Amino acid sequence: MKRIIYFITFAALLILIAAGCRKNVQYKALIVTGQNTIDWQTSSTLLKQILEESGLFKAVIVNSPESGGNMNSFDPEFGKYDLVVLNYSGDQWSEKTKQDFAGYVNNGGGVVVYHAASSAFPGWKEYEEICGLTGWGGRTEQTGPYIYYNRAGRMVVDSTPGTAGWSGKVRDFEIRMRNPEHPVAKGLSVRWMHPGDVQFARLRGTPQNIEILATAFCDTTGGGTGRDEPVLMTIRYGKGRVFHTTLGFPSGEENIALKCAGFITTLQRGAEWAVSGTVTQVVPPDFPSAAAVSVRTNLKIRTLDENIEGLENYEIGKSTRFYSGIQEEIRRAAGDKEKLLEIEKKLSGLLDKPSVTNEAKKLILRELSWFGTELSVPSIKKLQSVPELKDEADFALERMGIN
Amino acid sequence: MKKTSTRRDFVLKSASALAGSFIVPYIVPASSLGLGGQTPPGDRLVMGVIGTGSQGMSDMRDFMRLKDQVRFVALCDVDAKRLASAKDAVDKTNRSKDCRTYSDYREFMEKEKLDAVLIALPDHWHGIIYTEAAKKKWDVYGEKPICRTINDGKVIVKAVKDNGIIWQTGSWQRSQANFRKGAELVLNGRIGKVKYIEVGLPDGGRGIGTPPVQEVPEELDWDMWLGPALKVPYRGVCHWNWRWILDYSGGQLTDWAGHHIDIANWGTGLEYTGPVEIEGKGVYPVDGIYNAPVEYDILCKYANGIEMRVANSSRLPKGMGTCWYGDLGWLHVDRGNRISASDPKILQEEIGENEIRLYKSDNHYQNFVDSVRSRKQAIAPIEPAYRAISVGLLGEISMTTGQKIKWDPDKEEIIDNPVASRLLIRPYRKPWTLPTV
Fold it and tell me: Helix crossing, B54-65 with B364-374: angle to 10°?
């Protein structure tokens, strides 16, 4: 009997250790969709993948009846989930469903309001409070004042009467974080480029429970407001926490706005904050900055090996993202000798490989010049006899203090 | 080529020509020589320029605005177009076509006899050319940041000191009233004991992606422009925009360190020392030819306990500029004559006779000319410039390695970190070498 108990304890321990090695799926998410002014099928599929890619969520998509259908039959069990993602803008839900949803949030349920969901349910006061900012659907100053930032970087609550909701044309724009200390924003670039999205403006709401995390300038050249309009925000409703992103328009084949590393990261972090009030996810190495957009074609972060492989064919004029990715890994290794040695082995392996381009080798030699060890020296020395690489090889060896 | 003449030569020649009956003072009243209201040429500083790009031209024009005190006689640039337009400007002011031009600074240095030289080059050229100019004993007006690496900086500082030249760094904020007033109030304890300083420098901007190789413009000697930097094909990035590429610059951080960090040090008496600990984090472009950090956040600790945070301005509550925090309040200064304090009364305070008075200059260029004449130190001497950029460069090393850096400001060495220490140097492409001093 004792033996069996030992065995069970041991097995349980193993399972726990194994589970600890990779992120645990901790939260259940429900993506509510079925009607919308945008392509709700594509966006819901991508949202599900993005949430699951974080390793924290298991997501289920629930579709409402089609427009004009029997909405009484639409009765999701919100309470079974930790997070409800709203990708819905269409027919009014039944009163029961509305009450259930408001009750779910009030009791501490987490919510992500995604993009066009801010146009849903005109007249439903609780919903407007949960979203923080809403627009369209005949909304006016009755919904609340306009909320935006001025050019001096201050939040403006503007009671001017008028319509609510405006959306621009698909374009790249810069996001400006307004509260870099918020758990969702902490450690992220303060300014970052976001590609191929539709910006919302002239949204209205009540400022008391809203915390604006980020804005984007709404260019007047496209008929925009000339204001810095909120794009990321959090809202407190009862015991519930809401993360609202106005970003992520599914534009078609590439859906680049949803594949932006900035959109993905803020959504994953916002979702975690909504369910737990904290963020445990590390800042990904490919988070964009003001310098350039960063797109994940398959929604995944490139691994070191993928970056190494991508670097092999580098030529001038091609993207430097693989090299930049490796540089970021080196910075993040922060003196961790083992990790640095692993990267060094892979890089000096590329130096030895005849098929690797000289341009790639030049970049590698710059990097090894400061963090390379004796391990790389033979490979670097060999390149001193390659005329195209001699300068870079000399550069590396001189910096390493090797004659 | 016509032999050049300098102010010193002129003084000697005039003195002998007049057989000692007339000793030429530094400033000769124009009327006494009957030159129609102009200062005689002999009393003007004979100056040359190396680097006639946007900053060089801007400095040159400021010098030429000092009515008749400076005469530019020789210009040098690797871009023939820029050289020609600089010569045009000089010729107009000089009302003569005598100004000589060079495409190679070595020939310029060999042939010219100057009182002083204005040098405005990309950072990667500073080590060699500042040092060579000092070794020629020319007084130098040199643009910030004074070096691309700490190793270059050490050599430049030594060359300037050993050769006893007058040096003025292009840190012109020192010659602005608001910065001086702010620094003076802080130095005299008007916000109490300073514990913490925030320095806001510009954010990095948008990149240009990865342009292909392009034909080098006919007017540009690209190999000479690169000089000691690694050879790369021309891709359309050269003038001005070199500052976004790490081979030549450290981006906005090192571009601006010589301004607001310099002011921070000036107001705190940290001009001749450096931090003992530096820890920074940078945001780097994930793609593109521009690879300097676009965001940065660096915390430095000094031996006296003061902490200094240097970050891109979007991260800081007060944005751009220098803000000192003392135990009695804060004081903030920035360009555009901005000065503010936790209590406006602080700004009304007078500095008493027995209190610390800072060096006063209201015109950075005039101050250089005056210093050359008087042989007294200029307002922005070499070592404070080196100490200011060191903060930026050590921050860069911390961001590159991801590590906290320990620095010995007296020995000017990184402590116990041979890997990070390698980043104190950027080896030169052969045949270029950093001159020995």
Answer: 70
Residues 276-335 of B with CB under 8 A from A: 282-291, 294-295, 312, 314-315
Contacts of A395 in chain B (CB under 8 A): 230, 427, 429
Domains and CATH numbers, chain B: 7-171 (3.40.50.720), 174-353+382-422 (3.30.360.10)
Distance of CA A197 to the CA centre of its chain: 14
Q: What is the pLDDT of residues B205-253, one digit of tens each?
A: 999 999 999 999 999 999 999 999 999 999 999 999 999 999 999 999 9
Provide the b/e sequence for A333-360 (b: ≥16 CB within 10 Å): beeeeeebeebbebbbebbeeeebbebb
Task: Report the residue of A172, A182, A264, A331 to disrupt the B interface, i.e. the one with the largest count of B CBs within 10 Å.
Answer: A331
Task: Report the alpha-carbon distance of residue B148 to residue B161 in Å, rounded.
Answer: 19
Give the integer Cα–Cα distance in Å for B111 and B3. 8
The Cα B60–Cα B368 span in angstroms is 13
- Structure tokens of A171? 């374009």
Bridge partners (DSSP) of residue B326 are: B194, B329
Q: From CA A85, how far away is CA A32, in angstroms rounded?
A: 6
What's the complex ipTM? 0.90
Distance to chain B for A386, nearest Cα, Å: 15
A291–B312 CB contact, under 8 Å: no
Which of A189, A297, A330 best probes binding to B when mutated, by most B CB atoms within 10 angstroms? Answer: A189
Tokens, residue B237: 């990035």
Q: Is the dihedral of CA B48, B50, B53, B59 positive or negative?
A: negative
Q: How far is CA B428 from CA B228, B229, B318, in A?
A: 5, 6, 39
Chain B residues inside the 8 Å CB shell of A291: 204-207, 285-288, 290, 294
CA pair distance A33, A87, nearest whole angstrom? 5
Contacts with B, A 16-55, CB within 8 Å: none
Write the pLDDT tens digit of every residue in A336-385.
999 999 999 999 999 999 999 999 999 999 999 999 999 999 999 999 99
Q: Please report how many Cα atoms fall inside a 13 Å half-sphere around the Cα of residue B31, on the Cβ side.
A: 0
Of A180, A318, A399, the CB nearest to B425: A399
CB contact under 8 A, B290 and A316: no
Nearest-angstrom CA–CA distance, B118 and B170: 10
| Closest alpha carbon to B317 in B289, B291, B342 | B342
Question: Measured between CB atoms, which of A320, A330, A335 is closest to B288?
Answer: A320
Task: Count Cα atoms within 13 angstroms, Cβ side, for B255.
Answer: 23
Q: Which chain A residues are closer than 8 Å to B215 by Cβ?
A: none
Would you call A329 an interface residue with chain B, using a CB distance cutoff of 8 Å?
no
